[in-house]
Amino acid sequence: MGGKKKLSLKQMERMQGRKDEEDKKKKEKSAPASKEKKPLSIVPPDPKSEKIIGELKKMRVLTPYAVASRFNIRISAAKDLLEQLEENGTIQLVSGNHNIKIYKTD
Fold first, then answer.
1. Topology classification of domain 50-105
2. Could you tell me the residue ranges of all domains in the chain?
3. Which one, of 20, 71, 65, lies nearest residue 44 by Cα?
């Protein structure tokens, strides 16, 4: 008959010990990597604020993802912010389609 041989007690103990050590190492590695997630803000920052405009002018390319990452807001809120700034004339649309739009500062 085929199939896997039954392990002896000594072999099973060794395998269990190795598995426990691997689990401990994985837990130790994953503990420092976990960061506290902050809830993202839904309300975009004020588009007329000089501080916000100054931060945006430092960035070379303005995409919704980049703005959302910088100000810790949701991507939808970042899209709204960029659209408001474009209407005000602070930034201008460079390229884009229905998925993503790329802006630059004047």
1. Arc Repressor Mutant, subunit A (1.10.10)
2. 50-105
3. 71
